[in-house]
Amino acid sequence: GRLCPEGQWNWRRWRFKKSLEALDLVARRYKSRRCVTGIAVCNEPSNTVPLQTLCRYYDQAVDTVRHAGMKVRDVTVVLQIFQRDENEVIQKWERMTGDRHRNICFDVHCYHCMENVFHGKTMASQMRAVEDNAEMLRKYPMVVGEWSLALGCGTWSTCGAMTEQEVYKIFGAAQVKAYEEASHGRFFWNWTEASDAEWNYQIAQKQGLLSGPALPLPSWDGVGEDPLEEILHPSPPDAYIRYAEPVYLRVFHGRYVDVDGSQVAARWSDKDKWQEVSFWPSANTLSKLAAGREGCPLTKREQGAANEQEVQPGDVVRLRARCGRFLAADGQKGTAVALPARAATAAATEFIVHAHGATPLKHRGIIFLEHRATGQMLDADEEDEAISARWSHKGEWQQFAVEKPPAPAPPQTPQKPQRAQHQALSSPTTSSPTQKQRKAQEAKAIGTMAPTPVMPKRAMDLVDTSPKRRRVLRKVAGAIPNFDWARAESLDAKQSRATR
Question: 446: Cβ–Cβ under 8 A, 6 or more apart, which residues?
Answer without folding.
Answer: none
